Amino acid sequence: MTPLHPGMARIRIKDLRLRTYIGINDDEIRNKQDILINATIFYPACKAVGSNQIEDALNYRSITKAIIDQVESNRFALLERLTQHVLDCVMSFAQVAYAEVEVDKPHALRFAESVSITLAAQRDA
After folding, report:
1. DSSP code of residue 54
2. Can you spell out the DSSP letters for 88-106?
3. Is there a smaller number of Cβ atoms within 10 Å at the N or the C end of the chain?
4. pLDDT tens string 66-82
């Protein structure tokens, strides 16, 4: 399902590369690892489109800074928990109507480029 309709804007944060503690093995617990975050965010943009004023728009820089702070200052055993944590962070911004977050853990499996988890949330109408 895509909530894109007239007046709804889609923001994409692509390939946000961060380092955090993620995993259950001793080495993963001791050492930060790279992760890659992609987020798709929908919000009603009619007011921003009409006014051309930053205060009427969803500030994607503020969202990105909040994600960075949350990811880099916490430890996660499971990729699912990390992904939910990022999704909760995005949804904490009241203007967000729908968000989808994918978190990749590069080289988590032998012979695979990465493993990823995707979660989504929608605000009640």
Report:
1. G
2. HHHHTSTT--EEEEEEEEE
3. C
4. 999 999 999 999 999 99
